[in-house]
Structures are given as structure tokens and as C-alpha cells.
Amino acid sequence: MRLLVVEDDPDLARQLKAGLEDAGYVVDAAHNGEDGHFLGDTEPYDGVVLDLGLPKIDGLTVLERWRRDGRSMPVLILTARDRWSEKVAGFDAGADDYLAKPFVMEELLARIRALLRRAAGHATNELECGPLLIDTRAARVTVNGTAVKLTSLEYRLLTYLMHHRGRVVSRIELTEHLYDQDFDRDSNTVEVFVGRLRKKLKVNLIQTVRGLGYCLAEPEDGA
User: Within the chain, which residues score under 50 in pLDDT?
Assistant: First the structure.
């Protein structure tokens, strides 16, 4: 899953990026509203952490522009402002959640997990498909109760497919959500990682839809 952090404090931005990456996310960062708006408008993020007090364009305006242009990714507002009127303005502009500074990283991660699972229509941190279970809170994958050890990229790929269970996901979409903006993306590498996942999972859940991409579903679901 790929996230955007828009935060003008360089130390906090680095802490956020490191903490989110340690939790298994791919993270891009912008340090002003103009760059943040551009990235959110042109790149397919699964979620955004957005500060309100940004230079060039304030965070509320950035959010309003995204929503006006049809950008629907979940947005968590992160700000030192804690007046109820500003919170209301943020939610009315299209924010999905609000976290005031200072904050604990564990709470931010929990809120991000909640936003992502709600956006995908899931009620809990445990995502299931037949014998496959992913605990997104613990970053743990099991098949029939047996733990499966995955690399970070394999885990990101599997989690993205699981969040979009039953839908065909193209190779291009996968590369856009697995790598940050500076990575030299090659959709052919997706085939390699899908092959590795199939061998490790040892169950027929990741199906190839010729000419379109991949779909994670139980065989009886039809795909």
C-alpha cells in the first residue's frame, strides 16, 4: 500500500516516513502544499497524511481541491490545531480522520490501518480469503493456520490484492502501489513476485486474468 505524507517540518516528515515504512508501507513525502497537491493529483495513493499548516498552499485548500477534482483516497489530517471549529472545517472539506500533534506513532498507524480497511470495505484488521489470513496489525500471513514468511515487497503485493479481493488488478496498478515515485518501475517484476507468492502460499488463490492482470479470489468465487 502506498501513502503520501505532506508535512513541512523536516524532522517530523522523516519520522513519519520512517515509521510508516517500518510498518510496511511505501511512502512519498512532500514538504509544502503545492508539491503535495501535485503528487496527490497525479499519483494513485492508497492514503494521505496531510498537515494543515503548510507553506505555499494550506492543507485545507489542498484537500478541498483534491475532493473537487474527484480524488477519493482516505486523508488523515495531522495538525497542531485543535479547535473544534477547525476540525469541523477539515471534515467538511473531505477529511476522513483527524489526529492532533503531538501524537504517538502507534495511534497514527492504527488510524491508517482503519482508514485503509474501511476504504476497502473491511471491518477488522484480519483479512481472509479461503485458507489465507492476513493480520495487518501484526503484518502476519498464515495459510490454514501455518505462518508464511514473506519479504516486505511480497507482503505489500499480497496485501494490496487482498484489499481488492475479487477485482482484477493490472500489473501497472500493482507497480504504482508497490513502489515510490523515484523507483524505476518495471511491471515485469510483478510476475516474478506473483510466482514467488504462489509457491510460498501453496494454495490456488492468485489467478492470472490473461491480458488484464491478477485477481485474488477463492476458486469457487470464479475468476
Answer: 221-223
